[in-house]
């Protein structure tokens, strides 16, 4: 499960219902055009924290049905509701997902013992493997090297999606845990993360920019840093324009330019104005 892995986007209609046709088209675009190495399903990019348990199951089911065994699938099952997380872990495992992932429990100020109990409870309930999803700027959960070490004592916890800018901690983790999988979670920092020895990356913009992400990753691994830097420059110009226009909405508009029925974002995310739709279309033409 190494390489460039897309944090899968989900198509919803204007009423917020899952658009199965659109979701399947997004999946095929990722596999057939972006040529990614895997899919990370029901993460932040899939608007996971705004949908019901049954909707999460439906997305897991549709994705597995479309992908079959073409690429590895990682199921993000994390929830502040531990019972839901375990239920989803069992469901995704039964479907045949290659691994699970779970965001650190958020909102409440959970102590580390509570966080450790959360991960062990999920992964010990199933015959699968776990990838920690660490995203401190959204969860407020910052874990130390020693705390990651404690979590990794459970052999079923095989790695971490590291969505943080703390490259000192990233380097210390790579040195301390050479056998664990480390994925970069910030697309705009893929080059420096790769230089530090990550195993892969999981990103939102890979839904449209997966080919460049692969270039950065492979060039950096080959030591072709100047070439990788140039691709990262273009990628970050693209990312800057997307972020300034609205992250998820703009990626969906770019997919529409590519002929994909990518739908809309769930409320309370707003619809793009006509001006922003036009800018998203211009981004697609300029970069993609």
What's this, in brief?
This protein is an alpha/beta fold. It is 50% helix and 13% strand.
Describe the structure.
50% of the residues lie in helices and 13% in strands. It has one domain: Aldolase class I (TIM Barrel). The two termini are 26 Å apart. Strands 1-2-3-4-5-6-7-8 form an 8-stranded parallel barrel, surrounded by 5 helices. It contains 12 helices and 8 strands. The chain has 288 residues and is an alpha/beta fold. The protein has helices spanning 20-32, 53-67, 82-95, 112-123, 136-139, 145-152, 167-176, 190-195, 206-221, 225-245, 247-257, 274-287, and strands spanning 3-7, 38-41, 73-76, 99-103, 130-134, 157-162, 181-184, 200-203.
Give the proportion of residues in helices: 40-55%
CATH names the topology as TIM Barrel
> Could you tell me how far the N terminus lies from the C terminus, measured between alpha carbons in angstroms?
26 Å
Low-confidence parts, pLDDT < 50 over ≥5 residues?
Answer: none
CATH architecture: Alpha-Beta Barrel
Secondary-structure content class: alpha/beta
Principal-axis shape equals globular
What radius of gyration results from the CA coordinates? 18 Å
The CATH homology group name: Aldolase class I
């Amino acid at each position: 499960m190494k390489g460039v892995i897309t944090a899968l986007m989900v198509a919803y209609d204007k009423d917020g219902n899952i658009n199965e046709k659109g979701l399947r088209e997004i999946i095929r675009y990722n596999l057939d055009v972006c040529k990614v190495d895997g899919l990370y399903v029901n993460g932040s990019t899939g608007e996971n924290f705004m949908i019901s348990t049954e909707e999460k199951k439906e997305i897991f089911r549709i994705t597995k049905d479309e992908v079959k065994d073409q690429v590895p699938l990682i199921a993000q099952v994390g929830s502040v509701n531990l019972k839901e997380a375990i239920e989803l872990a069992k469901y995704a495992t039964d479907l045949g997902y290659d691994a699970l992932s779970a965001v650190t429990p958020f909102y409440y100020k959970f102590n580390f013992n509570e966080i450790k109990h959360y991960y062990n409870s999920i992964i010990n309930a199933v015959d699968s493997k776990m990838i920690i999803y660490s995203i401190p700027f959204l969860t407020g959960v910052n874990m130390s090297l020693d705390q990651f070490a404690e979590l990794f004592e459970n052999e079923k916890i095989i790695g971490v999606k590291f969505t943080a800018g703390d490259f000192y901690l990233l380097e210390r983790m790579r040195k301390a845990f050479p056998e664990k999988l480390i994925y970069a979670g910030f697309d705009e920092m893929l080059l420096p993360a790769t230089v530090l020895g990550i195993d892969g990356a999981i990103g939102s913009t890979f839904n449209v920019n997966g080919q460049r992400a692969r270039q950065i990753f492979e060039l950096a691994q080959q030591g072709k840093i100047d070439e990788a830097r140039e691709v990262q420059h273009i990628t970050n110009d693209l990312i800057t324009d997307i972020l300034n226009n609205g992250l998820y909405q703009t990626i969906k508009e770019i997919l529409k330019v590519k002929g994909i029925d990518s739908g809309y974002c769930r409320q309370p995310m707003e619809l793009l104005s006509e001006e922003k739709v036009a800018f998203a279309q211009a981004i697609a033409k300029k970069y993609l």
